[in-house]
Amino acid sequence: MGLTGWMLSPRFVLKSIAMRPVNAILQPTMTAKTLTLRLHPENYERAVALADRRHQSLNRLFQEGLELLIAQEQDKQLFDDFSLIAEAGEEETDVDFALPGQLQATDAK
Length: 109
Prior knowledge:
The chain is mainly alpha-helical. It has a domain at 1-33 and 56-93. It has helices at residues 10-16, 41-53, 58-87, 90-93, 99-106, and strands at 5-8, 26-29. Strands 1-2 form a two-stranded antiparallel ribbon. The chain starts with a strand and ends with a helix.
């Protein structure tokens, strides 16, 4: 696998971006894909200003924004899935029946 592009890990960025330098959160990817993006002129100017304030390129700004949106969507899906489990009630979510099998599988006593 070649190291021709770099992307941010969505989970790592969401939890750790404020605590680590940017180069510590970059991950190698296969090959970067090129995308054409159409923006309203006002949004373009606002994006340029934001990128300037953050001392980053427009490319990096949009990459980070997309990664954060993906992470938010994944977190929302996880929350929704756990909410469905909680709504199913205690009888549907009881896992005590599996404890003997888990203990046997892990040789715990």
